[in-house]
Amino acid sequence: MLFNPQEMQQQYEQYQALCRQLEAAQQQWQAAETLWQGLQLYYQSEQWLVDHDSDLNLATAGGEYSILDQDTLWEAMQARHERALRWMRLGLEAVEKP
């Protein structure tokens, strides 16, 4: 198999650019986790139940659902779990391949 060194150089540069984006994504993941921990504390608190039962009308942005809708945080938790599993599988594949 013959390789074109210039194409390999370009492939390497694309790889490095994507790796920088992955580093940024890891930082975003950590920031999202910090936000999630606060949401979980609220969701598991007595205050959430009081707020939920009070029928508060929260302003939402961009078509997001209210956090006082019981399914909103539950579904976010499920999506978070699935996303974490996908990232773990991707990481394991990368470790298992040379």
List keywords for this structure.
98 residues, mainly alpha, 3 helices
Q: Summarize the main sheet.
A: none
Question: What is the mean predicted local confidence, pLDDT?
Answer: 95
Poorly predicted runs are: none
| Global structural class | mainly alpha
What is the overall silhouette? elongated
Describe the structure.
This protein is mainly α. It has 3 helices and no strands. The longest helix is centred in the N-terminal third of the chain and has 39 residues. The mean pLDDT is 95.
In short:
With 98 residues, the chain is mainly α. Helices cover 76% and strands 0% of the residues.
List strands and helices in order, with pairings.
Elements lengths: L4 H39 L2 H8 L16 H27 L2
